[in-house]
Write a structure and sequence with these properties.
The structure holds 2 protein chains of 2 kinds. Chain A contains 14 helices and no strands. Chain A is mostly helical. Mean pLDDT of chain A is 74; it is low at 1-15 and 273-308. Chain B is mostly helical. Chain B has one domain (28-524). Chain B is 71% helix and 2% strand. In chain B, the strands form 2 sheets. Chain B has a 3-stranded antiparallel beta sheet with strand order 4-3-5, with no helix packed on it. Chain B has a two-stranded antiparallel sheet with strand order 1-2. In chain B, helix 4 (54-82) packs antiparallel against helix 5. The two termini of chain B are 29 Å apart. Classes of the chains: A mainly alpha, B mainly alpha. Chains A and B meet through helix 6, helix 8 and helix 9 of A and helix 2, helix 3, helix 6, helix 7 and helix 8 of B. Chain A: Residues 292-308 have a biased composition (Low complexity). Chain A: Residues 265-308 are annotated as: Disordered. Chain A: Belongs to the complex I subunit 6 family. Chain A: Its EC number is 7.1.1.-.
Chain lengths: 308, 531
């Protein structure tokens, strides 16, 4: 009986009519989502790309809510935008926001082919979906939203119709947890396990390792905040041991000022003190217009940590 | 159920349940007992990892895993007598336990037992095939220290059980959602297991990453197909999709796009045709017992799922899609046979052979007749045992650095170990499909089913490709018997009890199904899918 009432009430929805509010929200959120997608494609900086993608996901989440799918909307925002995108950003920040993809085309004509195929695929997809969906009469939201609403019905399906797959998901979660532990955990008491700091120092000075000190860290806090920045030796050359094998380091060209400074080629030892600005000004002016010469040349000044 | 929810019946959502509008699903625990035993044992195995001291884990885990597989087998056997011929649908129709599902479960359990025996072996390699601590970076001093030790990750046993449980659910899943979850449950442990080899760890880790990335793509394809099919039929149940496809004037675009994407995901898992690219690398890099497990059991699960999807949901539209799968089968056979010729590594060669076999299996799968169904399932059983034993033999031929998989190292092996060469020859002949082996009977039933269904051109191509593939099997045999062994060649390890048992099992079943296949064929043909 209740179902009948709800069915009657939602007859307008079932016929596919769109209310004004929904239309307004769509025309605001739809372009935003498209903009986010394009922004993600064309942003040079990987972090900007990720943030553009977050815009798209947020717009979609709100769209879902407007289409009376609040659970889906919130899951979209909490899981995708909140968890996955932020994890993605963490990884980007750890690897270094400076390190970008190589823009050299490995395969000749790859970009052109990808563009043509991509546009072709989009056309195919849109036309196929348009054809497929134009003749369909919408079922409407009466069924899914009856008897306590969308979220309650989802919960009900999970514990009745889809009980088994829902329970099976636990196997998936256990596997994921074991996998993380297997791949990441080392037992320090097992042979080959990690040594404590103290044992390591003793072993180093006994000559069990190639060098008594740890490897030099990256030049992270000197001029940039990325592990891709190599450390510099006192003579201005890059310390090769500070380079990671798996991350492409910041190119030496971009470090030229730091190198010049460390190696003492800058003809003003008291640059940040008094009148050395004109000595280093042209050098800095070309590469770092935003920073005053004094901060640019002083390795110890706090301002030196900020790099453009 | 109702007593549980009555106290909070004021809540509107709960009152629905209390009023009896929501149906509590019927659960036939007896029918699904084998799956529950396997998955439950996997959970107990995880607890063992948490609470047992390291030196005792291996023994307990092996005992638990073998006991669980035997118990699941007993449960299956006990249910078999009472099982209704038309099958049972349980858990609100998400699982369909019918004759094919029971046959595939039995196949999976026995093959899984063989694979677990290989995984448990510690005689061939001191400490086992698996690394003691995967988190230690390969090539470092600590890595060398742990390679000399006699430990291994005993988590591989619960992981293998989880994978096996996922495969069993995959064969019986009656809706696409359950199938997808099962696909992930079977894949995730396999990705992990691939990366845990004790020797050549970088190769092993590379194979795990490749399998994981490509597998994630394949899962995404499957999911996209699922979404489109849901859009078409308004349901993820296979029977509903069949009903929707049966007689409507809806546009078929969603149906066929969905089927195509779904098929990509399924064919990827079965390492068929153009979706096989992961197979050689992963088979080569993964620890040999895991390769054996994947080659035997994953194929059973993937084709079991494919058979069910095609037969239950898409039989009515077979006229439209069959041509595409014809092409896929041909491509798969050609790729497997031709590229197999060029391989110089035994594990890669068997990997390409598995691609070719996937093509043969697909021929049976698209026949969509009772004969095709039983033939394909028999082929899966026969091929699984043969390939399991073949990989076990590959694991025995070793040098100081690990397995000697390069073909040149196998030259003259018959002079070093006539027994091993004889066993491997027999297995290769079975893979080639020579009479008196199970491979011949498998090919015979699949091809005759295809002929009966009017696919004569495909059968002709398959026969030609079988002949081409036989060439590279025979090449290994010739190499083993008619070449002089190299002075610094590999040695043949005397296998311990576990590996010997697995090889014996594989060889005996290969022989048994070759000379007396009737009982297995009868069981495979005892009934169709529950529609």
């Amino acid at each position: 009986m209740t179902t009948g009432l709800v069915l009657a009430a939602d007859a307008a929805n079932a016929a596919g009519a769109v209310s004004t509010g929904e239309a307004v929200a769509f025309w605001i959120l739809g372009p935003l989502a498209v903009l986010g997608g394009l922004g993600m494609l064309f942003a040079r900086n990987a972090v900007h790309s990720a943030l553009w993608l977050a815009v798209t996901m947020l717009s979609l989440g709100v769209l879902y809510m407007i289409q009376q799918a609040p659970f889906l909307g919130f899951v979209q925002i909490i899981v995708y935008t909140g968890a996955i995108m932020m994890l993605f950003l963490f990884v980007l920040m750890l690897v270094g926001r400076d390190s970008s993809d190589s823009v050299v085309e490995v395969l000749r004509g790859q970009r052109l082919a990808a563009t043509v195929l991509g546009i072709g695929f989009a056309v195919l997809l849109v036309s196929a979906l348009a054809r497929a969906l134009s003749l369909v009469t919408p079922i409407g939201l009466a069924g899914p939203n009856a008897n306590g609403g969308n979220v309650a019905n989802l919960g009900q399906s999970i514990f009745t119709d889809y009980l088994f797959p829902f329970e099976l998901t636990s196997a998936l979660l256990i596997t994921a947890a074991i996998g993380a532990m297997v791949l990441a955990y080392t037992d320090r008491h097992a042979p080959g396990g990690k040594k404590t700091q103290r044992e390591l120092v003793i072993a180093r000075f006994r000559g069990e390792y190639a060098r008594p000190s740890p490897l030099p860290g990256p030049g992270v806090f000197a001029t940039a905040d990325s592990v891709a920045t190599p450390a510099l030796l006192p003579d201005g050359s890059v310390a090769p041991e500070s380079l990671s094998e798996i991350i492409e380091a910041t190119s030496t060209k971009r470090l030229s000022e730091d190198i010049a400074e460390v190696s003492g080629n800058v003809p003003a030892p008291d640059a940040h003190a008094l009148g050395g600005a004109n000595g280093t000004g042209h050098r800095n002016g070309s590469a770092r217009p935003g920073l005053p010469a004094s901060t640019g040349t002083s390795g110890s000044a706090p301002g030196g940590e900020e790099a453009p | 159920m109702s007593t549980m929810v009555l106290p909070t019946a004021a809540d509107p959502a709960v009152s629905v349940l209390a009023a009896g509008l929501a149906q509590v699903p019927q659960m036939d625990y007896r029918a699904v007992l084998p799956v529950l035993v396997v998955l439950g044992a996997a959970c107990v195995g995880v607890l063992f990892e948490a609470f047992l001291p390291r030196p005792r884990r291996w023994l307990w885990q092996v005992a638990l895993t073998v006991a669980a597989l035997l118990a699941a087998g007993v449960a299956l056997y006990a249910y078999l007598g009472d099982a209704p011929a038309q099958g049972v649908k349980t858990f609100a129709g998400t699982l369909s336990i019918d004759r094919p599902a029971l046959f595939l479960w039995g196949t999976l359990l026995v093959l899984g037992l063989g694979a677990v025996l290989l995984i448990a072996d510690r005689s061939v390699e001191p400490g086992g095939y698996f690394v003691a601590q995967a988190a230690i970076r390969p090539g470092t001093q600590q890595d060398r220290a742990q390679a000399a030790g006699a430990n291994m990750h005993t988590e591989v046993f619960p992981l293998a059980l989880f994978a096996l449980g996922g495969m069993m659910v995959f064969c019986a899943a009656n809706d696409l959602l359950t199938m997808f979850v099962a696909l992930e449950v079977l894949s995730l442990p396999l990705y992990l297991l691939c990366g845990l080899a004790r020797r050549r760890r970088l190769l092993s880790q590379e194979s795990a990453v490749k399998y994981f990335l490509l597998g994630a793509f394949a899962s995404a394809f499957f999911l996209y197909g699922l979404a489109l099919l849901y859009g078409y039929a308004g349901s993820v149940k296979l029977a509903d999709i069949a009903a929707a496809a049966g007689g409507t004037n809806r546009s078929d675009t969603l149906l066929f796009a969905g089927l195509g994407l779904l098929a990509v995901g399924l064919l990827f898992k079965g390492s068929v045709g153009p979706f096989h690219t992961w197979t050689p690398d992963v088979y080569q890099g993964a620890p040999t017992p895991v390769t054996a497990f994947m080659a035997a059991c994953t194929k059973v699960a993937a084709f079991g799922g494919l058979l069910r999807v095609l037969t239950v949901a898409f039989k009515a539209t077979s006229w439209e899609w069959r041509g595409v799968l014809w092409a896929v089968a041909i491509i798969s056979m050609v790729i497997g046979a031709v590229l197999g010729l060029t391989q110089r590594d035994v594990k890669r060669m068997i990997a390409y052979s598995s691609v070719a076999h996937a093509g043969f299996l697909l021929i049976g799968a698209i026949a969509l007749t009772e004969q095709g169904l039983s033939g394909t399932m028999f082929y899966l059983l026969a091929y699984g045992f043969t390939t399991l034993a073949a990989f076990a033999v590959v694991g025995l031929v070793r040098t100081g650095e690990g397995e000697a998989t390069h073909l040149s190292q196998w030259a003259g092996l018959a002079k070093r170990s006539p027994l091993l060469a004889g066993v491997f020859t027999f297995l290769l002949l079975s893979l080639a499909g020579i009479p008196l082996t199970s491979g011949f009977v498998g090919k015979f039933v699949v091809f005759s089913a295809a002929l009966a269904d009017g696919m004569a051109p495909l059968v002709v191509i398959a026969l030609v490709m079988s002949a081409v593939a036989a060439f590279f099997y025979l090449r290994v045999i010739v190499l083993m018997y008619f070449s002089e062994p190299a002075a610094d060649g590999p040695t043949v390890t005397v296998p311990g009890v576990f590996t010997a048992a697995a090889i014996t099992l594989g060889v005996l079943v290969t022989l048994l199904l070759g000379v007396w296949p009737a009982f297995a064929l009868d069981w495979a043909g005892s009934g169709g899918f529950a529609l």
